[in-house]
Amino acid sequence: MTDRPRFDFSIAARDGRARTGTIAMRRGDIRTPAFMPVGTAGTVKAMRPAEVRALGADIILGNTYHLMLRPGAERVARLGGLHAFMGWDRPILTDSGGYQVMSLSALTKQSEEGVAFKSHLDGSRHMISPERSMEIQRLLGSDIVMAFDECTGYPATPERAEASMERSMRWAQRSRDGFDSGVEHAARSALFGIQQGSMDEALRRRSAEALTAIGFDGYAVGGLAVGEGQAEMFRVLDFAVDMLPADRPRYLMGVGKPDDIVGAVERGIDMFDCVLPTRSGRNGQAFTWDGPVNIRNAQWAENLAPIDPASPIAGWSRAYLHHLVKAGEMLGAMLLTQHNLWFYQQLMAALRDAIAAGRLADFADSFRTRYHRTG
After folding, report:
1. Which domains does the chain have, with CATH numbers?
2. Catalytic residue numbers?
3. Which of 5, 249, 338, 350 is the most exposed place for a label (fewest CB within 10 A)?
4. Which of 91-95, 101-105, 325-329 has the lowest mean pLDDT?
5. Per-residue DSSP letters for 113-132?
């Protein structure tokens, strides 16, 4: 592992604005475009790490906010770091905690220093600053660290969007300095900056210029998938992505539905994460090439066909899955989560193959026609 690069991104093929390539890191290669299953609290819910890997995941995401509250970043460090703690030996990206602070905490007080908040678990008081976020992610042993930013709400006034973006850029510099101060961890990990600016092209450009001047290993597009809808998200991606350095990975945070991912790949995005495949699996929804299936529906009660004949859960019928979900049996959540994560990784593999073959447009059009077909 010590002979492997800290962080090296290579692009193997391009098709329009889309790219396919590899991020080489000490704990393994990440094939791009990549989908990262979300392991919020040190687990991809309803899955064992070996199963997640077997489905094709090269990297997973952990959450700074949740892990700092329970079991605590210092405790995870004493127990050998997040990789050893959860039994995942490949790369882990940790988000900064900023989004969860704003969305989950009952009470927050934001200042230039950072965000003071009450835990959603027990009401205890905490403070996350850029420096503390870097410290927590260092204690966890993250391979890809996310800069601490302010997630701008939607909709936002122009004044609010500008002020939020500017604060995020100041915090980006402090994140860079805080990350670099952890010399040993910084020498073997990577730091990504996060572009903000809401839906405004000029603000997005200023943000990208500020981040590029600071210098990061990769760049995320933040502040999307916050309620603006797919059309507006794609409109922003049409100009925001190309503002970021072309020789670095581009990560669209918190996205998304399968057709969101296809459209974002067409616009040059390389990395994704979303709770949707696991959350939907726990709630009785399966993703398929023919669109999402609500297995709770009575139409499946006596249907002996599998969700997909190629799925790892093809040995169980839709009727059985319907029964498990209606009965509240945990096996239903486990099987549907496994299927959904498999489907997402199959989609990413198909996108990589289509880009490499120069046929992404045909694949994307065919995918959308089938996925949105009704009847």
Report:
1. 7-274 (3.20.20.105), 275-375 (no CATH)
2. 95, 273
3. 5
4. 101-105
5. S-EEEE-TTT--EEEE-HHH
